[in-house]
Amino acid sequence: MQALLHVYDARVTFIPVDRPRMFVSRDGMLAAIQEPARITIIALPTCEAFGTIETSAATAVAWLGDKLLVLAGVRARLVDPRAAKLVVERRFDEPLALVAYADAHVLATSATATVVLDDELRIRPVRVHERVVLGAAVHTSLVGAAGDAMIEIDPVAALNRRTWRTTGTLTAIGGNLRNVWRTIAEMPARITVTPLVVLGQPTQHELPEPLVAVVGHPRSDVLACRGASGALYAVDLTGKAAPRTLAVAHADALALVVGTETYVLVGRTQHPTQCLSLAPSTWRDELIAWTRSGVVENYPVIAAIAELANQLELEEELVPAITLCYGAYLCGAPGVPPHDLAEVLGGRWPDEVRGAGFLAESGLLRFTPEWISLAPAYCRKLDDVASPPT
Questions:
Q1: How many angstroms separate the most distant Cα atoms in the chain?
Q2: Contacts of 182 (CB under 8 A, 6+ apart)
Q3: What are residue 372's DSSP bridge partners?
Q4: Which residue from 204, 207, 201 is spatially nearest to 182, judged by alpha carbons?
Q5: Angle at 141 between CA 137 and CA 145, to 5 degrees
Q6: pLDDT per position as a tens digit, 338-378
Q7: Within 10 Å of residue 54's Cβ, how many Cβ atoms?
Q8: Which residues are 86's β-sheet partners?
Q9: How many CB atoms lie within 10 A of CB 134?
Q10: Distance between CA 25 and CA 47 in Å, rounded?
């Protein structure tokens, strides 16, 4: 039992090997990143890995307070990741499937029942007429989707509080103290919000593309969404601000983290796990996100860089070279590899990549065998742009 959680001596930013799923602790300090053969515990917001649990592909994960529930069929284990020890273990009469968790309770289903599981792994049945297929935490309650209804469940009493009838096939649900929200398969670009107040009328948010993932938090009025194109969006449930694009990250998994700051945890196979702030982004934030994404198509058009290129009478097709190299500088990298520069230039400027063209002759870029970087004088020039240009 003592070897259940293997603790790392050296902490490094976690990079998933397989497609990840992510589960954030109630206090926003830890996250469990699940892959088919392991669960990795990371610290937030640094995304540093400090422990791993070996599992099977059928394992389910949830947080019960500050403990991690690891469920595989009929076997449940509650782990204290900070102390690296097993707290309690239990076997059930039939396999359970986890649906949602809130504070110290988990909503789960079996072949015969819907149940609430507490932080001592005790089970209490909940009376529902149809099988609950998905769920979410809503403030201190749990909400499950069953048939054409969303059912609010008091996890302490294991009783139904209220029911909302819906139309369409529910694909995601959630909420907080003021609102509940949902998405349906028939209208994949729409989020419908129902206020939890007397006379409150449902409102809708239309996104520019179908959504493949929507995540919320019971203490936040903001949703994080991923579109079919890979773009990430922030949606204000209150409607005070229009939906806005965060980045193009091609994330495999998202989670919303609410602590001293609210941000999106982004997981992607074979890429470092990262946090994206939900604060209004600047042009430098967008440039950093694009640089880290590895997506060379549709490079961001930055007014400050366009002005610099105009002053240097630079060919428009060479502007992406400055954009990528300044992005690498903002990320703290020594530069970009030659093949990355060739890719962003579309392979049309081989002399520029070899350091035999205008970019080198003008002193705009500096070349070494391993790295190509923006010259320090031009980095400082762009650094001096005080406000985000439009």
A1: 75
A2: 145, 150, 166, 170, 172, 173, 174, 191, 192, 194
A3: 336, 367
A4: 204
A5: 60
A6: 999 999 998 888 999 999 999 999 999 999 989 999 999 99
A7: 12
A8: 79
A9: 16
A10: 13
Per the CB < 8 A criterion, the answer to whether 103 and 81 are in contact is no
* Residue 147 predicted with pLDDT over 50: yes
Tell me: cis bond preceding 45? Omega within 30 of 0 counts.
yes
What does DSSP say about strands 149-154 and 170-175: parallel, antiparallel, or unpaired? unpaired
d(CA 37, CA 289): 29
Q: How far apart are CA 334 and CA 336, in angstroms?
A: 7
- Please tell me the predicted confidence (pLDDT) of residue 97: 93
The Cα–Cα gap between 334 and 374 comes to 9
> Can you tell me whether residue 253 is helix, strand or coil?
strand
Residue 62, H or E segment: strand 60-64
DSSP string of 112-123, one letter each residue: S-EEEEETT--E
- For the CA atoms of 292, 49, 269, 187, what is the dihedral angle to 10 degrees? -90
Model confidence over 312-329: pLDDT tens digits? 888 899 999 999 999 999
For the chain, the average pLDDT equals: 88
Strand partners, 226: 213, 232
Question: For the CA atoms of 248, 252, 253, 254, what is the dihedral angle to 10 degrees?
Answer: 10
Nearest alpha-carbon partner for 183 in 137, 221, 217, 134: 134
Q: Which of 124-138, 154-168, 266-280, 283-297 has the lowest mean pLDDT?
A: 283-297
Tell me which residue has tokens 């986890």: 98
